[in-house]
Write a structure and sequence with these properties.
The protein is α/β, with parallel strands linked by helices. The protein has a domain of about 140 residues: Rossmann fold (3-Layer(aba) Sandwich), CATH 3.40.50.2300. The chain is about 50% helix and about 15% strand. The chain is built from 8 helices and 7 strands, in the order E-H-E-H-E-H-E-H-E-H-E-E-H-H-H. The strands form 2 sheets. It has a 5-stranded parallel sheet, sandwiched between helices. Strands 6-7 form a two-stranded antiparallel sheet. Strand 1, helix 1 and strand 2 form a beta-alpha-beta unit. Helix 7 crosses helix 8. The longest helix is centred in the middle third of the chain and has 36 residues. The N and C termini lie far apart (about 85 Å). About 5% of the residues have low confidence.
């Protein structure tokens, strides 16, 4: 997983990068809020970001607010890194859209734990997004066979969306998962194959007589 680290302090940034890389993460570094915002708005943006609250050009809290104002299909998991330890500051950060916060100076174990929580949340978010997409696709399949379908009163062909007429079974097969197997009902068998119908009756009568005759 790729992680963005936005920290203007060189020593703190190097420590963050070292811990994350040791944990197997790919790290992208920025030194101010404007660079962090630009990175998070790219199509291949990292899914998780650690943002220092106090940075030049644009602070971490402003980055969080700007990202939350953007309608992203899969919003990133944002962790604020701050020396502000007052409860009011923590509440302000979380209310602005941060998912978590990490006090400075940070503990390496706590950093790994909070990043792991973020990773699990992102995986859950991705699974839910996939399930929602699957449900939408299933709903579209259902909708294709709803509504008024133009059907010929004689040959029973269906007029499709492009205005062409096609066989009923062909239309249903394209718009659902139904499969067809062909047979003959009794009425059609009698109408189109009268001789076969007679032979079928004869065979049925012969079988009935045979079964009713006792053996000696």
């Amino acid at each position: 997983m790729r992680i963005l680290v936005a920290e203007d302090d060189l020593t703190s940034r190097r420590m963050l990068v070292a811990v994350l890389q040791k944990g197997g993460y790919e790290v992208i570094e920025t030194t101010n809020g404007a660079e962090a915002l630009e990175c998070l708005q790219k199509s291949d943006a990292p899914n998780l970001a650690i943002l220092d609250w106090m940075m030049p050009v644009m602070d971490g809290l402003s980055v969080v607010r700007r990202i939350r104002e953007t309608n992203l299909p899969l919003p990133p998991y944002l962790i604020l890194l701050t020396t502000k330890g007052e409860k009011a500051d923590v509440v302000a950060g979380l209310e602005s859209g941060a998912d978590d916060y990490l006090p400075k100076p940070f503990d390496a174990g706590e950093l790994r734990a909070r990043v792991e929580v973020g990773r699990r949340m992102l995986e859950l978010q991705q699974r839910l997004a996939t399930q929602i997409q699957d449900l939408h696709q299933a709903l579209e399949h259902i909708r294709t066979l709803q509504g008024i379908l133009p059907i010929c009163m004689h040959c029973k062909k269906i007029r499709n969306d492009k205005g062409y007429w096609e066989q009923l079974e062909g239309y249903i097969s394209k718009h659902s998962h139904a499969e067809f197997t062909h047979g003959l009902c009794e009425e059609c068998l009698e109408k189109f194959y009268p001789n076969d119908k007679t032979r079928a009756k004869d065979r049925s009568s012969f079988k009935s007589d045979t079964e009713s005759t006792p053996t000696r």
